[in-house]
Write a structure and sequence with these properties.
Layout (H helix, E strand, L loop, with lengths): L5 H5 L8 E5 L6 E6 L3 H19 L3 H17 L1 H12 L3 H26 L2 E3 L7 E9 L2 E5 L5 H14 L3 E5 L5 H13 L7 E4 L3 H9 L4 E5 L2 H14 L2 E5 L4 E5 L5 H12 L10 E7 H16 L19 H16 L3 E4 L15 E4 L16 E7 L2 H9 L3 E2 L1 E5 L2 H10 L4 E4 L4 H4 L9 E2 L2 E2 L4 H6 L2 E9 L9 H18 L1
Parallel strand pairs: 5-6, 5-8, 6-7, 8-9, 10-11, 10-16, 11-14, 13-14, 16-17
Antiparallel strand pairs: 1-2, 3-4, 4-20, 9-19, 12-13, 15-18
Helix pairs in contact: 2-8, 3-5, 3-7, 4-5, 4-7, 5-6, 6-7, 10-11
Bound molecules: nicotinamide-adenine-dinucleotide (NAD).
Length: 504
């Protein structure tokens, strides 16, 4: 990074004697020391944000939206720097960093475009026609806490922070320790675009200390991360009666139909499973294939998986990068070892690639995973795909739904039949002849999960409105008075009865 040095980005954070080293997962080397804030520092940041939000709430929405348009331009201009930072902190491949950056840029223009329509006062149907009229306003909530994970720091920041800001809120965001620079740089660009600096504060530190201080003091929490942490955030938010959205984990199935082309299905499965080395909430982790196609499919997917280029590169020459660090490597190896110990067969990969760096792991295909294996229904969150056979489609649908999660699902084959299957899958999104990109890339399509994958949806108009309080305004015209005394009701009763009848 040239003019925007790491030091100048980190300078945004309140100072702290406590630091943790932020590491580059591709090399294991330290990038810089990241301050770890206390609960008191987070509370102070929220108090300051609350003061700044007063003026912002009264800034016309058109003006707020125009700053997002400006940000959109700056994101485009700094696309390369954003991808460099993403790769530095996550070690994902250039292609996956590009995909994430493009998504983030699209979100800025989308929210700039829809904000005015979403937030402008709207007339609603009056309850007492001719006597009253009604409107609905969408008032900002105040200070929104955004808590983001390490794996998609840029896209997930933009998808929550921008709609919260444009709705008139201030934001205090807890960036994950591993990927704070990317978040700080995105914020730096927002300030350059003209968004008042005090409106978006980034804080870093221990998950529980900083996370609790956020949930205990803000007016709404937009949380993205694991289901285990999401439950804690939800319980704490419920105690305070504040709203929260929870974007959590997934165990995302793909059903390959009899009508599918085997080669194409294998290609789609690979693209759906190995994005960001499988460290993506909507990644495909299980594939169900008709028994008669299973062997051919396994051979095809193994061949394609073995041909993927894994490594570190700042150009588009590598298909897959590294895992995100030591914990991720232990997690993925633990799941694969457990599956093998309980009877699964590794068809491709299944090993660490130490020659490439400390945390590289080969994209892996397994089959015959025992229902007792941890991987059967739990989220691996790594480059591992489980292929299983099915005899009839109903059985495949039952297996696909047989998990606590319900984030994303995929169906490959004839579109009409796939649409019928989609209706039976219990997931927040279903992608047909695609793993996740078709729905994920649409800013208009709500994104979120059922069951243990979370609550609430981001994207679309609802993606903005969740950061507002709906306020109904009712006005009596004064032309005909609303009854106030019993005798008035008596007089008006026939007219009111007629009206109710006519309005049905
Ligand atoms: P995590 O739950 O460990 O951490 C997420 C964030 O929460 C981090 O910033 C962490 O510091 C913070 N945190 C930790 N303890 C907290 C607490 N008690 N209160 C508040 N915040 C706390 O998750 P992770 O390992 O960073 O991310 C991976 C998980 O996130 C996977 O399960 C993945 O599927 C999920 N995820 C979901 C989506 C989605 O949109 N549904 C997107 C990305 C990742």
């Amino acid at each position: 990074m040239s003019e925007t040095s790491i030091g100048s980005l980190v300078a945004h954070l309140p100072a702290s004697d406590q630091t943790v080293p932020a590491l580059n997962p591709a090399t294991g080397k330290k990038i810089f020391d990241l301050p770890q804030l206390s609960a008191a520092q987070v509370r102070d940041a929220i108090t300051d944000a609350r003061i700044a939000q007063h003026d912002w709430a009264h800034t016309p929405v058109t003006e707020r939206a125009s700053l997002l348009k400006e940000l959109h331009k700056l994101l485009i201009a700094d696309e390369t720097k954003l991808m460099d930072l993403l790769q530095l902190e996550t070690a994902k491949s250039r292609a996956h960093a590009f995909e994430e950056t493009v998504g983030a840029i699209a979100s800025a223009s989308y929210y700039a475009k829809i904000a005015t329509k979403a937030l402008t006062r709207k007339p609603t149907k009056a309850g007492i026609p001719f006597l009253t009229k009604t409107y609905v306003d969408h008032a900002p909530l105040g200070v929104v806490g955004v808590i983001t994970p390490w794996n998609y720091p840029l896209a997930l920041t933009m998808l929550d922070v921008l709609p919260a800001l444009v709705a008139g809120n201030a934001v205090v965001q807890k960036a994950d320790n591993q990927t704070a620079l990317t978040v700080l740089f995105a914020r730096h660009l927002a300030v350059e675009a003209g968004i008042p600096a005090e409106l978006w504060t980034v804080v870093t530190g221990d998950g529980e200390i900083v996370g609790n201080a956020i949930t205990d003091n803000v007016d709404y929490v937009a949380f993205t991360g694991s289901t285990a942490t999401g439950r804690k955030v939800a319980a704490r938010a419920a105690e305070r009666l504040i709203g929260c959205s929870l974007e959590l984990g997934g165990k995302n199935p793909m059903i390959v139909l009899e009508s599918a082309n085997v080669k194409r299905a294998a290609e789609i499965a690979i693209a759906g499973a190995f994005g960001s080395a499988g460290q993506l909430c909507v990644s495909i982790e299980r594939v169900f294939v008709p028994n008669r196609m299973k062997q051919e499919f396994l051979e095809e997917i193994a061949k394609r998986t073995n041909s993927l280029k894994v490594g570190r590169s700042s150009d588009f020459s590598m298909d897959i990068g590294s895992l995100g660090g030591y914990n991720q490597l232990q997690r993925v190896m633990g799941y694969v070892d457990d599956a093998v110990a309980t009877g699964a067969t590794v068809v491709a990969g299944g090993k660490q690639l130490t020659e490439l760096g400390p945390y590289f792991y080969a994209p892996t295909v397994v089959t015959n995973v025992n229902p007792n294996a941890r991987m059967y229904a739990q989220e691996v969150f790594g480059p591992v795909i489980d292929v299983e056979g099915y005899e009839d489609l109903d059985a495949a649908i039952t297996m696909a739904n047989d998990t606590d999660y319900g984030l994303n699902a995929s169906v490959v084959g004839n579109e009409r039949e796939a649409l019928r299957v989609a209706e039976k899958l219990n997931a927040g999104s279903v992608n047909i002849n695609e793993g996740f990109r078709a729905s994920f890339a649409s800013m208009e399509s709500p994104m979120g999960g059922t069951k243990a994958s979370g609550q609430g949806r981001r994207n679309g108009i609802g993606g903005i409105l969740r950061f507002t309080e709906a306020k109904s305004i009712g006005i009596a015209h004064g032309l005909i008075k609303i009854p106030t005394r019993a005798k008035h009701y008596e007089k008006m009763a026939p007219l009111m009865r007629l009206m109710v009848k006519l309005l049905k």
